[in-house]
Amino acid sequence: MRYSAARLLWEGLKGHKGWGRAWRDPEPKPSYDVVIIGGGGHGLATAHYLSKVYGVRDVAVLEKGWIGGGNVGRNTTIIRSNYLLDGNEPFYEFSMKLWENLEQDLNYNAMVSQRGIMNLIHTDAQRDAFRRRGNAMRLYGAGSELLDADQVRKEVPFLNFDNARFPIKGALVQRRGGTVRHDAVAWGYARSADQHGVDIIQNCEVTGFRIENGKVLGIETTRGYIGAGKVGVAVAGNSSRVMAKAGMRLPIESHVLQAFVSEGLKPVIPGVITFGAGHFYVSQSDKGGLVFGGDIDGYNTYAQRGNMPVVEDVAEGGVALMPIIGRARLLRMWGGIMDMSMDGSPFIDKTHIDGLYFNGGWCYGGFKATPASGYAFAHLLATDTPHDTATAYRLDRFRSGAMIDEKGMGAQPNLH
Amino acid sequence: MLIPHPLLGLRDAQEFTYLGDASLLNRPDGMAEGAAEALHDYLYLRDNPAGEHRELWFHEQGDRSWLVVTRNTLTHEITQVEFAADVARQKGADQ
Ligand SMILES: Cc1cc2nc3c(=O)[nH]c(=O)nc-3n(C[C@H](O)[C@H](O)[C@H](O)COP(=O)(O)OP(=O)(O)OC[C@H]3O[C@@H](n4cnc5c(N)ncnc54)[C@H](O)[C@@H]3O)c2cc1C
């Protein structure tokens, strides 16, 4: 069924009884050409592009819980393409272009809202670094603007400009950045993939791989053995656990990132604002809640909850940046498990096992990457060659020295 | 999270800096045969287990000792805390 204004009107007249389910609930078949493990944003986007763009339709997505229950439904929904390094910027800009046409492509309202992202500047050195980054963005057509303090003040007058320790001296702005309704991204990709013949199988946990003579033949799941020509793994925070079942150790640690939402308030924040002196970022949802977050907790964990010190740190960052936030009450908070890589950048690559492909290492920034990640992973699965924008995301880059370390932190995942 | 320091008792995890897997104590010999490969694995690859994890914490805001903490990454429960120096010494003695 196509969604449209006419359809809405028609269903409205008939009491909304005819919508039906958005995707099927099939039993797993004995085998598929391609099996994707992980029904998060990246797995579902891969299935969509694989079936729609690359014409591979004998595909299953296996999800251990329900789709959208992982990080795709836990993030703070920010999209942007404001990276510095050559290995990253073209990829994230490709993703931004796919976001811009996503709803037409999926026939699904994902509430893509390009209301801008503003990275605040507090020191002269930071201005230099942001100018350089802004230029890198322009080289790849992403667009950027450098604002001075007065220009920032015009747009967001409620910030604490004259903070003695961290005065606001300007901002790097990407007008095309913004937010997207994260659940709708999972559902929209799932619905479209389903319409193109993909089986989305929930409550199906992968428990092992059947590998013979260096080639993967299929996977063991809680719903039985499923044969597969190719297997693509996109399980985000669980990457190390799943790949360990194929005997692999990854350059990844799992860490928790927390997110917070306030009670609903009248519109105050126009776009996304990030504090350049502490780690704090905030936007306002359509329902009025302030959606914000900060640093990861910083220790290995698979518990989808964080600890109080980070809550305090985030609150301090918020109050330092915009004192008015002190009056808002916190409504909800939660955590998600991040696949933090050794250089802060992701992987989309084949493994040394024939037929086994890996997508992961997205750290705290993989939501914005969802469309490009799915596209590039589908390209790799269908053609056995990396997509043009994802050639740097190799698993062996630490061996060859071709790291993509945006922050220059080295092999210390909790600092990226 | 509270870390039971062997000398100082329960301390807030906030006083510590986290480094990561305690296997970082076992730095390979850089002059040995195949050192490049061994150092690659040592520096970049991690077991990253769900469950019991031995990890290095530095008591930066305290007595500045390095600890090896055994902690469950699913529940955050801490079951053992040792001085990293003792762990390293014991390893030397075993060799
Ligand atoms: C609090 C928070 C805020 C964030 N904010 C942003 C942001 O503002 N902007 C941004 O770009 N990114 C952000 N991120 C990061 C982003 O959410 C992730 O990088 C991205 O969602 C990861 O990809 P995914 O959607 O495929 O992951 P997930 O949705 O986690 O999908 C992985 C799926 O694999 C499944 N799985 C795991 N093991 C198995 C198994 N054995 N068998 C079958 N299935 C399995 C899981 O159940 C899960 O559903 C944030 C993350 C968090 C937690």
Automatic annotation (TrEMBL), chain A:
<keyword id="KW-0288">FMN</keyword>
<dbReference type="GO" id="GO:0046653">
    <property type="term" value="P:tetrahydrofolate metabolic process"/>
</dbReference>
<dbReference type="GO" id="GO:0005737">
    <property type="term" value="C:cytoplasm"/>
</dbReference>
<keyword id="KW-0285">Flavoprotein</keyword>
<comment type="similarity">
    <text>Belongs to the SoxB family.</text>
</comment>
<dbReference type="InterPro" id="IPR006278">
    <property type="entry name" value="SoxB"/>
</dbReference>
<dbReference type="Pfam" id="PF01266">
    <property type="entry name" value="DAO"/>
</dbReference>
<dbReference type="InterPro" id="IPR036188">
    <property type="entry name" value="FAD/NAD-bd_sf"/>
</dbReference>
<keyword id="KW-0963">Cytoplasm</keyword>
<protein>
    <recommendedName>
        <fullName>Sarcosine oxidase subunit beta</fullName>
        <ecNumber>1.5.3.24</ecNumber>
    </recommendedName>
</protein>
<feature type="domain" description="Rhodanese">
    <location>
        <begin position="34"/>
        <end position="78"/>
    </location>
</feature>
<dbReference type="GO" id="GO:0000166">
    <property type="term" value="F:nucleotide binding"/>
</dbReference>
<keyword id="KW-0547">Nucleotide-binding</keyword>
<dbReference type="GO" id="GO:0008115">
    <property type="term" value="F:sarcosine oxidase activity"/>
</dbReference>
<keyword id="KW-0274">FAD</keyword>
<dbReference type="InterPro" id="IPR006076">
    <property type="entry name" value="FAD-dep_OxRdtase"/>
</dbReference>
<dbReference type="InterPro" id="IPR001763">
    <property type="entry name" value="Rhodanese-like_dom"/>
</dbReference>
<keyword id="KW-0560">Oxidoreductase</keyword>
TrEMBL record, chain B:
<dbReference type="GO" id="GO:0046653">
    <property type="term" value="P:tetrahydrofolate metabolic process"/>
</dbReference>
<dbReference type="InterPro" id="IPR006279">
    <property type="entry name" value="SoxD"/>
</dbReference>
<dbReference type="InterPro" id="IPR038561">
    <property type="entry name" value="SoxD_sf"/>
</dbReference>
<dbReference type="Pfam" id="PF04267">
    <property type="entry name" value="SoxD"/>
</dbReference>
<dbReference type="GO" id="GO:0008115">
    <property type="term" value="F:sarcosine oxidase activity"/>
</dbReference>
<protein>
    <submittedName>
        <fullName>Sarcosine oxidase, delta subunit family</fullName>
    </submittedName>
</protein>
